[in-house]
Write a structure and sequence with these properties.
This protein has about 140 residues and is mainly alpha-helical. The protein contains five helices and two strands, in the order ααββααα. A two-stranded antiparallel ribbon has the order 1-2. α3 runs antiparallel to α4. The longest helix has 23 residues. The relative contact order is 0.22.
Length: about 140
């Protein structure tokens, strides 16, 4: 079973792949790589959301990050009934945003920035504690 941590880190992995593409790769190809990578993040998010139990109240699928922004309180990510639709909407909208902008000038910079934005938006919606929310915001 996948976790929300994988969904949170996946856009950064795709951004690294897009940034590492050779300079001779045309902008439209960079856009397609970013679009396909964002679509993979959407599939990963959808698969992770399948483990959500609508009958159970409160936070679910909580993953402790093992490090702390706030001293003494380890940061964690997870979903509840409010954040799950927002996370799913995020992972569905970003592939569309990448697809719309295929072939623009300076495509590499744009798509890397958009992938970083996706990860930060996901961190805002997945944050369990206020310190991680504030850091992502």
């Amino acid at each position: 079973m996948t976790t929300w941590l994988a969904v949170l880190v996946a856009p950064w992995v795709v951004a690294a792949v897009v940034a590492a593409l050779p300079a001779r790769v045309p902008g439209w190809a960079v856009g397609w790589v970013a679009t396909l990578g964002a679509a993979c993040v959407a599939v990963l998010g959808g698969l992770t959301a399948l483990g959500f139990d609508r009958e159970q109240a409160g936070l679910q699928q909580v993953v402790s990050l093992g490090w702390s922004i706030q001293p003494g309180h380890p940061s964690a990510i997870g979903v509840d009934g409010w954040s799950l639709p927002l996370v799913l909407l995020t992972v569905l909208v970003f592939p569309v945003a990448h697809a719309v902008e295929i072939g623009i000038e300076r495509a590499r910079n744009f798509h890397v920035a958009l992938l970083a934005l996706e990860s930060v938006v996901l961190a805002v919606f997945l944050a369990v504690d206020w310190a991680l929310f504030y850091a992502a915001w």
